[in-house]
Amino acid sequence: MEVVQGVQTRATNRQTDQSVDVSIPNRREFLYYIWGASIAMVVGEVIGATLWFAYPRFRAGEFGGVFKLDPTQVPERGGPPRGEPAIRIWMSHLEDDSVIALYNVCTHLGCLYKWVDTNNRFECPCHGSKFQKSGLYISGPAPRSLDRFVMTITFDDGTQVTTNETGDPIPLAEYQGRTIMDIALDTGRRILRPGKV
Ligand code: FES
After folding, report:
1. What CA–CA distance (Å, rounded) separates 152 from 183?
2. Of 179, 178, 181, which is closest to residue 70 (Cα–Cα)?
3. Which end of the chain is more exposed for a tag (fewer CB within 10 A), N or C?
4. Do 167 and 107 share a structural domain?
5. In a domain, 197, yes or no
6. For a substitution probing ligand 1, which of 103, 104, 105, 108 has the most ligand atoms within 8 Å of its CB?
């Protein structure tokens, strides 16, 4: 009977020793853990944000990405603009032999404007804003001229020309004698005009 009690006593001591090994963090250690976790979270967010901005969010061929256009999609000089609803643009080839890609959404409240051949201008069916073939504002409640997309044209001799920062039409007249081989339209780079100019 005594032996049994001794065994029970040792077993009880072992249990007591094991419970002593599991220590509860004191206040300072607890604050260190919280601080470490906070730092890890901030570092994780910084890395995540860096990756988000470092990689393109749109693939080529998706709206918001880059589209390749066939040179035959450029309309005739001085002729009516060509609508490309799949990529949300109107392509205009102006009388002075310059080209421009316009976003096909009205700058007033976002309706899809149309080209009206008989009036030789774009007209919005919603509230009547009107724009020139170049996208310049004519009349109506729209607060600014039409938005443009950045376009890069590559010619047969390797020369490349890209839409400038203000979105002016690209002057093809300056590249006479060359043939357009490739047009890259970046729908992720929309240029907003500052007003009715
Ligand atoms: S949405 Fe085009 S004029 Fe209002």
Report:
1. 6
2. 181
3. N
4. yes
5. no
6. 108
Which residue's CA lies nearest to atom 1 of ligand 1?
109
Percentage of the chain beyond pLDDT 90 is: 68
Output b/e per residue, 81-102; b: 16+ Cβ within 10 A.
bbbbeebbbbbbbbeebbbbbb
Counted residue by residue, the chain has a size of: 197
Instruction: Of 55, 61, 53, give the one whose Cα is nearest residue 184.
Output: 61
Mean pLDDT of all residues belonging to the chain: 87
Dist. CA 185–CA 153, nearest whole Å: 9
Give the residues surrounding ligand 1 with Cβ less than 6 Å away: 106, 108-111, 124, 126-129, 140-142
Domain assignment of residue 59, yes or no: no
- Residue 46 has a pLDDT of 78
For residue 164, the CA-to-ligand 1 centroid distance in Å is 27
Q: Tokens standing for 8? A: 């029970």
Cβ-proximal residues to 128 (8 Å cutoff; 6+ apart), any chain: 139, 140, 141
Residues 78 and 122 occupy one common structural domain: yes
Q: Are 124 and 141 in contact (CB under 8 A)?
A: no
Ligand 1 closest atom vs CA 129: 3
Q: Phi first, then psi: what are they for 181, rounded to 5°?
A: -105, -30
Pocket test for ligand 1, best of 102, 103, 106 (most atoms within 8 A of CB): 106
Per-residue pLDDT tens over the stretch 25-72: 777 787 888 888 888 888 878 777 766 666 656 677 778 899 999 999
